Amino acid sequence: MPRARRRAGRSRPGGLGLGIATLYMSLIVLIPLAAVAVKAVSSGLGTFWDSVTNSVALDALAITLGAGLIVAAIGAVMGTLVAWVLVRDTFPGKRFLNALIDLPFALPTIVAGLTLLALYGPGSPVGIHLAFTRAIVIVALLFVTLPFVVRSVQPVLIELDTEVEDAAASLGASNAVTFRRIVLPALRPAIVSGAALAFARSVGEIGTLVLIAGKVQIASIVIYADIESDATQAAAGLSLVLLVISLAILFSLRRYGRVRIAH
Amino acid sequence: MRISARTTWSLRAVALVYLALLLLLPLGVVFERTFAHGIATAWSYVTTPAAISAFWLTVVIAAIAVPLNTIFGVGCALVLVRGRARGRALLDALIDLPFAVSPVIVGLALILVYGQSGWFGRWFADHGIRIIFATPGMVLATVFVSIPFVVREVAPVLIEVGEEQEQAAATLGASNWQTFWRVTLPAIRWGVAYGVVLTTARSLGEIGAVLVVSSNVLGSTVTLPLLVYDRDQQVGSAASTGAYAAATELAVMSLAVLLVMTLLGSRKASTATR
After folding, report:
1. Less packed terminus of chain B by CB within 10 Å, N or C?
2. Which residues of A touch B227 (CB under 8 A)?
3. Which among A201, A198, A249, A253 is positioned nearest to A77, based on CA atoms?
4. Domains along chain A with CATH numbers
């Protein structure tokens, strides 16, 4: 029976599936993003250059990228420490703490922003007034990016063979030396990719910051203000710069990830 | 590495204090502010007509965005992992784009294409369909930001379970459709479920992109996150209690999602080791 034979040779999801998936991605993601790039240069390259090199745009970029770097650095250190405690330490409530790490991913960002406003804003119950300053921007970004480094370091640390560490210790290496020479090199790729994701997220974050950033002119807030005042070209210009930065991070991470797997 | 008890204790203390200050303390303060004037007051703020319509709009948007992205996500993962078509690598790279794009840029991008004077927007306007500053635009924004979750959860599971069972089903005469429903889907169900939960969490809480494409008219295009934002922007302690009440409502919804996520996470881990 030819019919049965054709069935047995199972067809694979082929060109049609790829076509539908690409169409969906195009209508929702790719064409709109292309429109931003087109809009940014629609009035000529000179206008685009002016819109991203005026003092407001340059300040916004400096503050945003600076905050991203600080958050990535603190996040790398503290995230690794938290992951270490979650993997190597045992204490009551550890499972609860482990679940808590995902809180920033689950909690709506506007709620996170409001919580920080309640804590550090006017009438702060702890007497610390950070709202509407650059410091609160850093704290808010540390909150939303907490899971990145922890969740990327944790599985590597679980897989890590402790025998090598024991061997180093028996040969007389101190804990500091063992950590620096044995543990850290194994964790480095995970720390770097976690920190890079935290940086990318920081650069684009708005939900947490709309309530608490005040007059701190981070890039997403400047773009939002431009859209609201119909300065669409300026908004598109700054957006294009941010897009290029995030794309660069995304693609270098993919390359980095591939290298890691190859070795 | 043998670590002294003192070092262990101090590392543990630093981690716990950091997490308590960053996560638990702020959340506690919001609950405290919500119920400062009693549970009845808080309840009255989440049952105003504006708050109820915001709640339903949030639920409706999630109810459209989550199934759309689930069907797309499973299909796309199948194409990427099982397919042989050319161009898969490019699609694979593009899937992560929404994670790398700022939500404000998402809003701007959608306005430029689907807004009244946008690329496709004119056609829709001529046919009397309003997308931007209306619910369809907010759905589009939510779909955009939550596209990658299901694909990224399902694809590794598909690789993990392998093709042997599907091939066996095909040899025994099962159609593609039967193979998918009886063999593939049961094997990847925990991955799909986890992806759905992540998509839901993001859909409920999205503000940046939705803020840009909503007209912010109370009772029609305000979701719960936008309600929190609006109430906070108003002056006066009543408005701020209202903001805290709406925030607590959202927080409770997302904590429920987190709980499901944790339960599924341990389920997924235990099936993976089997």
Report:
1. C
2. none
3. A198
4. 14-43 (no CATH), 44-262 (1.10.3720.10)
